[in-house]
Amino acid sequence: MEARTVVSSAPWVSEEGRGRFRSSATTKAFGAAAVIVLATGLTLGLLVVPPDAVQGQVQRIMYLHVPSIVTAYLAFAVVFCFSILYLWKRELRFDAVAVSSAEIGVVLTGITLATGSIWGKSTWGVWWTWDARLTLTAILFTIYVGYLMLRTFAEEPQAAARYGAVLALIGFLDIPLNHMAVQWWRTLHQPSSILRPGGPSVAPVLLLPLGVMFLGLVLLYLYLLSERVRLERLRHQTADLRLKRGRRG
Hints:
Elements: H1 2-8, H2 15-20, H3 25-48, H4 62-89, H5 92-123, H6 132-153, H7 157-171, H8 174-184, H9 204-248
Helix pairs in contact: 3-9, 4-5, 4-7, 4-9, 5-6, 5-7, 5-9, 6-7, 6-8
């Protein structure tokens, strides 16, 4: 809707150009599949599989908490890769993917922090503690919020892309630290029970909704990424056209 509004208000954009920025069939398929898979995963996690024998019903928050942070890692890995491509090629099409993925990663990390606080209140008795894993996740969230804010201070797109790319490369170093924190330091957070040597320690019946939810969030990520990249490229094209019209006028 936003893209159509912007395009329709820009009379210098041709009909061919307008059609190029409409959602593709693949993007719509990602969105539809994400709704179906996430609904299935939530049904399995909240209604079908049994509660954890130790933590009880509150453990069900895991089915959103864990897939959210893993998908956030994926989003920030995309930021990392496309930031390198931008610094190498200096093409804004790579930066469009990086900034779009960063926005989605920030939202997913925020969901992780929120669900982790709820889970922590029930298991540890506090909403927050300066545990190594929690602190590093908060730092990760702050770094990429800072990434988005830093870009707004740049006066032109190439500078915003350059500053953001450098910060994205530095910020990505937090992810391996975050993942290994429970092995390297004594923490309240339980050790990794899925991404660990020797395979998952979680019961197979609990792995099913986790896997379905992760798949659903990845599909949702792909849908949002496609839509956000489309809007970012439309923004670049509109800015370029306005600049050209200003020079002619």
